[in-house]
Structures are given as structure tokens and as C-alpha cells.
Amino acid sequence: SCGPRRVLRHNPTSMRVFSGIQPTGDKHLGNLIGGFRQYARTQEEGEAFFCIVDLHSITVDYDPQDLHDRTLDLYAMLLATGLDPERSTVFAQSHVTAHAEAAWLLSAVTSYGQLGRMTQFKDKSEQREFVSAGLFTYPVLMAGDILLYQTDVVPIGDDQRQHLELARDVAARFNARFGETFVVPEAVYPEVGARIMDLQEPTRKMSTTGGTAQGTVRLLDEPDAIRKKFRSAVTDSGREVRRGDDKPGVSNLIDILSVATGRTPEAIEADYDGAGYGQFKADVGEAVVELVAPVQARYAELRADEGELLRLLARGAEKARVAAAPTLAAMYERMGFVRA
Ligand code: AMP
Ligand code: TRP
Question: If pLDDT is split at 50, 70 and 90, which confidence band does 189 have?
């Protein structure tokens, strides 16, 4: 995969990182642990692109004013959780028209059958009476996001595994059909916390759009609301604080505490040996309050200055356009389009 990298990239030696985040639903602890935390870390390791995927958000029923506000909310949240707009390229997908173009071109090398096997599509389409065509082709847009930037690694939550696999297949098929054009990207999943579960129903993932209200910890929840959600978290039968397939509730809380405090899950199990669930849950709640407090303070400051957010977004879009342009041009050329 050195070929396309050398030709289509300004700096072929550094590692390219790309991830996308939807501006829908309030952002929650799962996003922080499975997503944002990794973004801030990976931006130190290479040339990083973080995209607010507003085009993805119109694939399910949505409110235009809401999309507008949440795009700015999310941008402020990404900066609040540690992305540096100087060091990384942080931008909105709709500001860079190459994304919509790439999705259409790549739809020629995406299998209809594979799209139909996406579990996210099956889940989301079951729950509604109007299923948009965009919900079905969503993974093609996502593949384009990644491939346009000659991305080496995609830090991502566990729920996106299948979509990432599809992006790799699309890249390989395009390369085979039209000549080496794309780097085939690798996903990186967080070791602990790739899948934070709902506190009330620990067999499903935490989500503001699909989870329970009490079981979802929003990043902007008040400290007391956070404490209460952890106090009332569902635990499992027995009373030992240890991980196990039969203990999804406790396992989830151990993962959360591990991430929030930097202690290993093994150390946590040892620390709470014989302590029972009450103290454990209170401690997890407190650790999460401490984890999110600085994020909340920084967010409030950033969100208050919309003019500055828009200026920074425009700069991000400019950087992204420059980075995506050579790959999009190569796609058109190799696919046989006349370039006048
Ligand atoms: P989204 O808000 O769905 O666009 O997701 C943003 C990022 O957070 C993606 O990398 C997701 O994989 C990740 N993410 C979302 N929900 C969870 C969860 N419950 N646990 C861990 N990571 C998650
Ligand atoms: N589908 C991803 C999600 O729901 C968001 C996304 C869109 C994305 N494009 C991407 C993630 C490209 C990584 C890379 O979380």
C-alpha cells in the first residue's frame, strides 16, 4: 500500500489517522471512552483528521435546526476532549464536497449484498416505518470519508467493525479494478472500553438514541445526575466485583472505572474483593464525575464563542479540501471520466 501513499499524499512518511463522529444525540460516556479519548491520543501519533459527519446524520429522521446546533455542539466537544485544531484537521463533512462525490463513485465498487448484511442497517431499519435509501448506502459514504485521505488507521468503537471491513473491501476492489489508488485502512479499537454498555440494560450499548434514559450517562449531565445513574446501575446476581460473561453489568462498571482511573481491571477486582456492590458503584460514579468535570468546563467556554468555532471550522475545511483533492482527482481519472 506504499504506492498510492507516495503519490497521493503530501507527507508519505507520517501515519494518517481518520475518524468520523455523528452530530446526533447528546454525546455520552461511551463516546468519550470508545471514541474521543482515543482521538486525542492518536493525534499525537501522526497526521490526524477528525470529521463531523453531518451528511451521515440525514439518513434517519432529523430536525434541521437540531442538526445545525449539534454540529457546533460536537465541534466544541471535540476540542473540549482534547483535539487540537492546529495539530489535527477537524472539520465538517459537508464543507468538503469531495465526500459526497467519493460516495457516488465508490458505490460502483460496493456490493449491494454486502450492504444488506450490515447489522446496523438491519437494526435501524427494523425500528422505523420510513427507511431512507441513505440509511442503506451509509457505509459507502463512510468508506469514502476514510479512503479520500489515504488513511492508515481508523480509531473507532467496536460497533463500527463491520463498516470498517466494508471500507477495506471497497478499497481493495477499487484498487484491483482501476489500479492502486487507496491505502487499505486498519481499524484500532480501544483495549478497554471499546463497548460501554447501558447501565440499566447492560446487554446493549450505551447510546443516547437507542439506550435507556437512566442508563445513559451524558457528558453534560450534572454531577448529581451522574452519581445517581451509577448508584442505580443494574448489577448482577452474586456480590463479587469481577468480570465475566455472566456479569455484564459489573464487567461494564469495572471497564468504566478502569478507564476513568487508569487502573487495570485486575487491580480493581482485587481492590474490591469482598467489598460488595454499594461502595463499588458509588466509587465508579465519583470517578466519572471527576473524569468529565474538566471536559464540561472547557466545553462551556468554547461553545459560548460561536464566531470563533466557525472560524476554526472554516480553517479545518480548507485543510481537508487540500488533503482530499489529489485522491478524488485520481479516482475520476482512473475510472475513465474526461477531465476538461
Ligand atoms: P457516534 O456518536 O455514534 O457517531 O459515535 C462516535 C464514536 O463513539 C464512534 O467511534 C463509536 O464507535 C463510539 N461509541 C459510540 N457508542 C459507544 C459505546 N457505547 N461504547 C464505546 N464506544 C462507543
Ligand atoms: N459511522 C460512524 C459512527 O456511526 C461515523 C463515521 C462516519 C465514521 N464516517 C466515518 C467513523 C469514518 C470512522 C471513519 O460512529
Answer: confident
State if residue 19 touches ligand 2 by the CB under 6 angstroms criterion. yes
The closest-lying atom of ligand 1 relative to the alpha carbon of residue 159 is 12
The CA 274 to ligand 2 mean position distance, Å, reads 41
| Residue 201 pLDDT exceeds 50 | yes
Alpha carbon distance 125, 190 (integer Å) = 28
- Taking Cα atoms as reference points, which of 95, 13, 10, 8 lies closest to residue 51? 95
CA distance 98 to 91: 13
C-alpha 339 to ligand 1 mean position (Å): 39
Distance (Å, whole) CA 27 – CA 99 = 24
Alpha-carbon gap, residue 59 to 38, rounded angstroms = 26
Residue 263 sits at φ, ψ, to 5 deg, of -85, 150
User: Whole-angstrom Cα distance, residue 299 to residue 277?
Assistant: 33
Per DSSP, 35 falls in state: I
pTM of structure: 0.91
Return the SS3 of 241: coil
Mutate to test the pocket of ligand 1, among 21, 31, 71, 217 (most ligand atoms within 8 A of CB): 31
Q: Answer yes or no: is the C-beta of 217 below 6 A from any ligand 1 atom.
A: no
